[in-house]
Amino acid sequence: NAGVTQTPKFQVLKTGQSMTLQCAQDMNHEYMSWYRQDPGMGLRLIHYSVGAGITDQGEVPNGYNVSRSTTEDFPLRLLSAAPSQTSVYFCASRGTYNYGYTFGSGTRLTVV
Amino acid sequence: TQLLEQSPQFLSIQEGENLTVYCNSSSVFSSLQWYRQEPGEGPVLLVTVVTGGEVKKLKRLTFQFGDARKDSSLHITAAQPGDTGLYLCAGAPDNQGGKLIFGQGTELSVKP
């Protein structure tokens, strides 16, 4: 089992560029979420999904878009990158009857 | 907006000492989870508590969920250098399935 796979692991963007952070899970989990982690601020929820076709905003959704066309994939799109989006991004998933989430290993994004 | 206040933010102790980390909120949670994170990796689930007043033990770690399901604590007995890491509490707000919010985290350093 690969678990939760995030790509890329590292990325440098210029201000204004767009990109998609990929997240895939092979555990048939219904619930998936995206977080960003900044020093001293824990993990902040960006967007989450309770199943294919269903997404909702978290605590810090501005500047990010998501879609959930399949159970396995939950990509995060940055439409116009800003330096404030420099962070480490984590994707996570859980099954319907489990409370705990499985996390990917993260994407370290730098916007210059 | 639900908030989870975690304290202390930093903790540096000697091997063999005991410690307690607190996670408090004014909101009610359907479950409270504790994660541990190593540098460069995603958080890993330690435990989930779901019933008010619940106590769970994991070797030298004791987790408690408050009676009103608004707070939790993590107690480590006789800390060891291998306990060093970032500890994160996370709560699932009542009636908001799929949403999980995190506290700011506690950076623990246990010196030999």
Low-confidence stretches of chain A: none
DSSP strand content of chain A: over 45%
Helix content of chain A: under 10%
Shape of chain B: globular
- Please report the number of helical segments of chain B: 0
> Which structural category fits the helices and strands of chain A?
mainly beta
Query: Radius of gyration of chain A, rounded?
Result: 13 Å
| Poorly predicted sequence stretches spanning 5 or more consecutive residues of chain B | none
Q: How many β-strands of chain A, per DSSP? A: 11
- Describe the main β-sheet of chain B briefly: 6 strands, mixed
The SSE order of chain B reads EEEEEEEEEEE
Biggest chain-to-chain interface with counts: A-B, 26 and 25 residues
Q: Give the overall pLDDT of chain B as a whole number.
A: 94
Walk me through what this model shows:
The complex is a heterodimer of chains A (112) and B (112). Chain A is an all-beta fold and 112 residues long. In chain A, 0% of the residues lie in helices and 50% in strands. In chain A, strand 5 and strand 6 form a beta hairpin. In chain B, the strands form two sheets. In chain B, strands 2, 4, 5, 9, 10 and 11 form a six-stranded mixed sheet that branches. In chain B, strands 1-3-8-7-6 form a five-stranded antiparallel sheet, with no helix packed on it. The radius of gyration of chain B is 14 Å and the shape is globular. Chains A and B meet through strand 4, strand 5 and strand 10 of A and strand 5, strand 9 and strand 10 of B.
Quick structural summary:
The complex is a heterodimer of chains A (112) and B (112). The model of chain A has no long low-confidence stretch (mean pLDDT 95). Chain A is built from no helices and 11 strands.
Keywords:
heterodimer; A: 112 residues; mainly beta; seven-stranded mixed β-sheet; four-stranded antiparallel β-sheet; 11 strands; globular; B: mainly beta; six-stranded mixed β-sheet; five-stranded antiparallel β-sheet
